[in-house]
Amino acid sequence: MEYVIEAENLSKTYGSFFWKQKKPALNKLNLQIPSGIIYGFLGPNGAGKTTTIKLMMDLIRPKEGKILVFGMEPSEAEVKKQVGFLPDYPAFSSYLTANEFLGICAKLSQIPALERASRIEEVLDTVKMTKHAGSKLGGFSRGMLQRIGIAQAIINRPKLLVLDEPLTGLDPHGRQELMEIISDQKRKGTNVFFSSHILYDVEKICDHVGILNEGELLCSGPIESLLSETGSRVHVKHGENEVAKLLMEDATGSIKLPDGSWDFVFPAKSEIKGKIDEMQLRHPGSFTMTPSREKLEDFFFRKIENSRKIM
Length: 311
Fold this sequence. Notes:
The chain is α/β, with parallel strands linked by helices. The chain has helices at 49-56, 77-82, 98-108, 113-126, 142-154, 172-187, 199-205, 223-226, 241-248, 273-282, 296-310, and strands at residues 3-14, 23-34, 38-42, 64-69, 83-86, 160-164, 191-195, 208-213, 216-222, 229-236, 253-256, 262-267, 287-293.
């Protein structure tokens, strides 16, 4: 399997000569992230997420261990050409227009002069900021600045997009639009790695997640394999009222959807399976059944709490 990011015994300690006890920010992190996915890096404040990203971006150096991006050291020029990065709370010059700022970014990315204008137009369209191309950044809202931050991160058409807390401070509409941009990058073949505190949004768009706490990786893998099955969910099509009435007796939760269909939830140890098998024969195609899994938020807090008990 091809890995976009690999960390082996990666450790980082912060401190100084004046501190008697140095604080480990990362403790022997081992991580392998396959290509073709959106990876969500989760953890409470101070867990080591930003430190990991800084090591990945060659902004700081590890105390021990190593991290590879596309199988190469992050310091290599070839890696820097293939990576786009948006840090947490980026700083922008308020006197520059969006066009001027992205023009500087295009030069730094060594995009040929003849291609710069079209590339800037392309990324502004991607982040839906075309009409603000001539406006100064000082007048932009937090959401608009995040869009410009994404634009500069993708102007070099990176193979890996690294985002540190890109959803923080955005309203629900802004988060939704930013998630659509991130998902669109995956569809275009870009690998995406981002950290976030907003677990609901992470669960919707990420393929894999990793949870970090106090510098140690608690788990990492596909979301579906990490979240436990808690029962079954049955979706009954519109018009199948007889089936809905029969299922309603045993369901622990039910909701009628705007289109007239129904969703029912059954616990893991429910005796409903026999009834459903019988109904499938009597009413073929009237409903679908899928496993019901715990929410990422519940899983996250359970892992953090268990790690604290061990520590």
